[in-house]
C-alpha cells in the first residue's frame, strides 16, 4: 500500500479483512497528511463521476454510521442543516443519505428560504487516524517510512509484493505520473466551541462557501476551493472572511475565539482514478487517488472496490 492517508488506511483495512498481508509505505507520518487536517464531514465535494461517487459515498456513509454506532474513536454522527436561497430540489447525493428532509421555516436563519436537514458522519481525524493506524498494526500490517520517487519502485522497496495499491493523494501527479491530478487548496479555521452541536453549511454564500462543523472540543469553519493553487500557507485575510461569513450563518460564533487556521491541498482530478493496471516490472497495481474534497466521504466505498479489483480486472 503506497499512502497512509485515509484512502490508503481504509483500503489496507479492507485488504487485511480479505486475507492479504499488508505493508503500508508512506513518506511522512499520517499526522502530516492532508487527511489529518480535513474537516472530514461526509459530503461529496469536487469529485466525479457522480454515479461512482454516489455508490462509493453511500457505502462509506453506511460504514461510518456503523462505526459511530460501535463507538469507533473519532467517528460520530452530526445533525446538519444545509441552507439555500433557491429551492434545491432533491440533491444528486440524496440517495446516499437516509432521513433527509426539508427544514421547517422555524429552523432557518434570517435570509434563507430553503434548507435541508439530515445527519451525516463526521470524523475527528486527529483522534481517528491514530486509532486506525494502531488497529492496522494490531491486525498485522507493517508500516514503512520511505519516500518513493516513482511508483514503479514500490515493488523493490516492499520486497516483491503480489499487488501494489497506489493511494498517494496529490503526489500521484509526479509519482505515477498523472498530470490530471491538480491541487485544490482549502483553508479552514479552528475556533472554540460556544456550545454548538449542529453542522450548518451554505455552499452558495455570496462571500464564498461557508460551513460550520462542531467537533467535541472545537468548531471547524470553512472554507475555500482554490483550483490549481499550490501554496498551503494560511492567509489571514481569508481567515477573517471565513469567520465573518460563518458568523452570518451561526451568530453564536461571535463568542468563539480563533484557535488557528490551516490550509491543505485537496488531491483533485477530473475523475477519481480507481482502476487496475500494471507496473513496469509486471506487478499488478490498483490505483486509488484523485478524491478531491471527498477523500473521507468515499474512503470505505473505494476500499471495497480496491479489494474487488485486487482479485482481477
Ligand atoms: C481544508 C480541507 C478540508 C477537507 N474537508 C473534507 C471533508 O469534510 N470531507 C471529505 O471527504 N474530504 C475533505 N477534504 C479532502 C480530503 O482531505 C482528501 O480528499 C483526502 O485527505 C485524500 O486522502 P488521501 O489518502 O488520498 O491523501 P493524503 O491524505 O494526502 O495521503 C497521501 C499519502 O501518500 C503518502 N505519499 C505521498 N507521496 C509519497 C511518496 N512519494 N512516497 C511515499 N509516500 C507518499 C503520504 O505520506 C500520505 O501518507 C478536505 C481537504 C482539505 C484540504
How would you portray this structure in words?
The structure is a single chain. The protein has about 325 residues and is of the alpha+beta class. The chain has two domains: about 1-75 and about 120-180 and about 270-313, 3-Layer(aba) Sandwich (Rossmann fold); about 180-270, D-Amino Acid Oxidase, Chain A, domain 2. It has helices at about 5-15, 35, 50-70, 125-140, 155, 170-175, 235-250, 295-310; strands at about 25, 75-85, 100, 115-125, 140-145, 165, 180-190, 200, 210-215, 220, 225, 260-270, 275-280, 285-290. Strands 2, 3, 4, 7, 8, 9, 10, 11 and 12 form a nine-stranded mixed β-sheet that branches. It has a three-stranded mixed β-sheet with strand order 6-14-13. A hairpin with a 5-residue loop joins β13 (about 275-280) and β14. α1 (about 5-15) packs parallel to α4 (about 125-140) and α1 packs parallel to α8. About 45% of the residues are buried.
